[in-house]
Specification:
Endoa_GalNAc, 2 domains, endo-alpha-N-acetylgalactosaminidase activity, carbohydrate binding, GH-type_carb-bd, Gal_mutarotas_3
Length: 80
């Protein structure tokens, strides 16, 4: 064929105590994972567009009353 499909792959990271808590656990694994993880295009914009998705639903029906949705948008804005 004129194109090549991407083959499945796996990555392994062996790490030590990355957060200096004197034990090697899942948190150290998560820190090491950051160096090999796939960052999808546009990942840095998610924090800016979260509020737009809260009130949207299929069929144009909001799951919460408007004021409750607005409160949620304000809270997310304060945390980002």
């Amino acid at each position: 064929p004129a194109y090549t499909q991407e083959l499945p792959s796996a990555k392994v990271v062996i790490t030590e105590d990355a957060n200096a808590d004197h034990k090697v656990d899942w948190q150290d694994g998560a820190i090491a994972y950051r160096s090999i993880m796939n960052n999808p295009q546009g990942w840095e914009k998610v924090k800016d567009i979260t509020a737009y998705r809260i009130a949207m639903n299929f069929g144009s029906q909001a799951q919460n009353p408007f004021l409750m949705t607005l409160d949620g948008i304000k809270k997310i804005n304060l945390h980002t």
